């Protein structure tokens, strides 16, 4: 059945056209597909993800979200993705030009695992689990703010209605007031609640998923689902608003946050 599907005639053409090697080569060239493969391969080598399939899923989801609603793919997008990845690799190279894994190194993963284990012990002894898990999320990733959202339960007859969430808890670092300039980023949390997929925003100023009015309040954020019995029961979010954060949140942070909410 799969071979039959691949041999279906394209609009205005014959089945022989669909299977023609030159037509396939033309498609790969027109879409710059080889650069997509190069980009995904380079990112995997650079980040060393424990779960490469989940890594690719989140990586692609991030690019789709950053593209913005209604925006179409263009071949130069893949070229830019490759260039950005190689730029990250160059920044991570040592004095001899050797490149090692960046944030998702063994040491980084070990740090997350240690903090997760410590957080699990504290959560067992916690009386207010919601307040504790939000603070543990902020501490885990070294964020300035963290929040817990729950999927909205208000019924609607509109099948096309955008997903929504309600804010349950929010916490901030000791030097910040939890209510002072707290950014409303629940639109991203709502997408995570609906999809169950981690969302990472490395640079809010360049990401179409973030409201432009929040540019001064958010620099980088990560949202991860809280699951229960296979369903999304909530969303954890960690936000940094610093103008120049040391490092933006990435896939490794998203997976650690997901583990905290599992």
How would you portray this structure in words?
Strands 2-1-5-4-3 form a five-stranded antiparallel β-sheet. Residues 1-9 have low confidence and may be disordered. A hairpin with a 2-residue loop joins strand 4 and strand 5. Helix 4 packs parallel to helix 6, helix 7 (106-124) runs antiparallel to helix 8 and helix 8 (129-141) packs antiparallel against helix 10 (251-261). It has ten helices and five strands; from the N terminus they run H-H-H-H-H-H-H-H-E-E-H-E-E-E-H. The chain is 47% helix and 14% strand.
Number of helices: 10
Low-confidence stretches: 1-9
Q: What's the overall average pLDDT, rounded?
A: 75
Can you tell me the overall shape? globular
- Give the assembly state of these chains: single chain
Rg, please? 21 Å
**Fraction of residues in helix:** 40-55%
What layout of secondary structure does this protein have?
Elements: H1 2-6, H2 15-19, H3 21-31, H4 33-47, H5 52-67, H6 75-92, H7 106-124, H8 129-141, E1 145-151, E2 165-172, H9 186-195, E3 199-201, E4 220-228, E5 231-240, H10 251-261
Antiparallel strand pairs: 1-2, 1-5, 3-4, 4-5
Helix pairs in contact: 4-6, 7-8, 7-10, 8-10
For the structure shown, list the relevant keywords.
47% helix, disordered N terminus, 262 residues, 5-stranded antiparallel sheet
Short description:
The protein is of the alpha+beta class.
């Amino acid at each position: 059945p799969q071979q039959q599907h691949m041999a279906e005639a394209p609009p205005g053409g014959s089945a022989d056209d669909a299977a023609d090697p030159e037509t396939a080569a033309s498609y790969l060239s027109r879409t710059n597909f080889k650069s997509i493969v190069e980009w995904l391969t380079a990112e995997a080598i650079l980040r060393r993800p424990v779960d490469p399939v989940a890594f690719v899923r989140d990586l692609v989801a991030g690019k789709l979200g950053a593209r913005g609603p209604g925006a179409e793919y263009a071949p130069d997008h893949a070229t830019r993705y490759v260039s950005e990845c190689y730029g990250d690799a160059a920044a991570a190279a040592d004095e001899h030009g050797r490149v090692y894994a960046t944030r998702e190194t063994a040491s980084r993963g070990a740090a997350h695992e240690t903090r997760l284990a410590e957080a699990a012990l504290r959560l067992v002894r916690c009386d207010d689990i919601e307040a504790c898990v939000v603070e543990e999320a902020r501490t885990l990733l070294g964020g300035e703010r963290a929040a817990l959202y729950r999927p909205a339960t208000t019924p609607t007859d509109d099948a096309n209605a955008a997903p929504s969430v309600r804010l349950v808890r929010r916490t901030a670092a000791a030097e910040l007031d939890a209510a002072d300039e707290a950014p409303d980023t629940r639109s991203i949390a709502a997408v995570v609640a609906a999809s169950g997929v981690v969302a990472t925003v490395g640079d809010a100023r360049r990401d179409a998923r973030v409201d432009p009015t929040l540019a001064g309040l958010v620099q980088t954020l990560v949202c991860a689902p809280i699951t229960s019995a296979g369903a999304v029961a909530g969303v954890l979010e960690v936000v940094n608003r610093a103008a120049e954060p040391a490092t933006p949140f990435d896939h490794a942070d998203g997976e650690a946050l997901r583990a905290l909410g599992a």
